[in-house]
Amino acid sequence: MATGRTYDLYSPGFRAATHETYARMREESPVHRQPGLDGETPIWFVTRYADVVAMLSDNERFVLDPALALTPEELAAFEEDVPIGADPRVSENLLAKDGDDHRRLRRLVSKAFTPRMIEQLRPRIEELAGDLIDRVVDRGSMELVDDFAFPLPITVIAELLGIPVEDQRRFREWSNSFVTPPVTRELREQAVRHTEEFVEYLDELFARRRAKPTDDLVSALVRAEDEGDRLSQNELYAMVVLLIVAGHETTVSLITNAVHALLTHPEQLGALRADPALMPAAVEELLRFESPVERTITRWATADVELGGETIRRGDLVIAVVGSANRDPDRFPSAEELELRRADNKHVGFGRGPHFCLGAPLARLETEVALATLLRRLPGLRLAIAEDELSWRPIPVFRSLAELPVAWDA
Fold this sequence. Notes:
The protein is of the alpha+beta class. The chain has 18 helices and ten strands. It has helices at about 10-15, 20-30, 50-55, 70-80, 90, 100-110, 115-120, 120-135, 145-150, 150-160, 170-180, 185-210, 215-225, 235-265, 265-275, 280-290, 320-325, 360-375; strands at about 30-35, 40-45, 60-65, 140-145, 300, 305, 310, 315-320, 380-385, 405. It has a five-stranded mixed beta sheet with strand order 1-2-8-5-3, covered by helices on one side. A three-stranded antiparallel beta sheet has the order 4-10-9.
């Protein structure tokens, strides 16, 4: 652990004791400043529910665009150290914009992700989930991530965008590169290579959609880009990247974490089997209990702010630790317990405020369908390896199992 870090938030050892670490932080130093992943840049980590909600709801003093918080000289100094992964062709998306720019980009895709529009996808999602189980049901075992949790949401988002589903494995490689911090030379070179491959792929796709539009989201975005100032070329690249990455990465983790939580809490699994109507509430509790998005991306303070007894200065970097807030006992009684019938469950698993997750309705629906299909089709579903053999992906933003081998009574 780097000098100056009070809490280990990045090592494999941290992944084995994540929630214990966050409990200590909430108790000892709920708004805490220490070096981030690079071991040098100081970042404030906000861990209590009330403080996280206050921070995420304040889009004036905590922003995503550093240009709103830094002087031109400070911004120039910062940009000298920007990682290669922050290529403007794939980074000018909703997660990097504030105010009018954010609202403009969000409006372009928001109609496709309303609860009413998403509910119309239920039959197709049920069909896809059933087909995936058909492929493995007679085997009596599978690796849940590769065989089910990944192909389900990537197929859904690919169909929404109008991208050939046979390319989904390439998307997985590219997506993993985009969410992995480029902390080594090898990872930086890989990020550059994958960005070039992805932009080249998108250029060909956009050309096909301009020549022959279809009823899909990419065609709609290309039309918006062609109308002029509504969507720049880089914004077009970045929007598709965000929809692909956010459209499946979070849901893969959510489905996998949910299955893991249920299989390690058999009494709750039994309650869900006995009462399928419990499913919507169960998904909310599973989102709270093991939040797939563990930390927000970094925000910037635009002014001095008092938060949790600390003074965050203008220009400071701040991260909200969603996974900690959702286990805060001051907000959730028996916060460390999985309770599928939890009544008051206003978790922050999808964020809060203007940047609340646009794809939340889709992630909820996909998880409901995924769990219902697994429980209905796979009797005796259980872990196929010991709990201590499981490993978590070393990605700071996500709480995500690398794999989840399961078995059932074939």
